[in-house]
Amino acid sequence: MRISDVLRDKGEAVVTVAPGASVRELLGLLAEHNVGALVVSADGESIEGIVSERDVVRALVEAGDELFDAEVSSIMTSDVHSCTAEDDVPALMRLMTDERVRHVPVLADGRLSGIVSIGDVVKHHIGDLELQRDSLQAYISSGA
Q1: Residue 130 pLDDT greater than 80, yes or no
Q2: What are the Cα distances from residue 82, in Å, to 78, 104, 143?
């Protein structure tokens, strides 16, 4: 099972936010697109960071209301783990678990081409397990 399989099911659309955008703008985009994290990118192809709801909450505790006018770059995570569509899902699951990340951008030729969340991976994995179960039940029922 490859990352490309997950992207085929969920789509390759990626919402990005500019590093100079305000946290208020970031929150609007998170709500509008009903996502938990955005890739920080000035051009929509390069990755300068990633910023999640969790990053906002942690920064809000420290900065208070002033955070809403701060730039996204001040709260983003700069050390971003990424993968490619050819990578396998079990390896991505290990990465997400070991590094405690919930969102991993997907690169193609060094450019942003998708994003996979832990929810996407779990949903795909459950679908795969259900297919295996159904196949085994059909095999047992056939008397083979």
Answers
A1: no
A2: 12, 5, 45
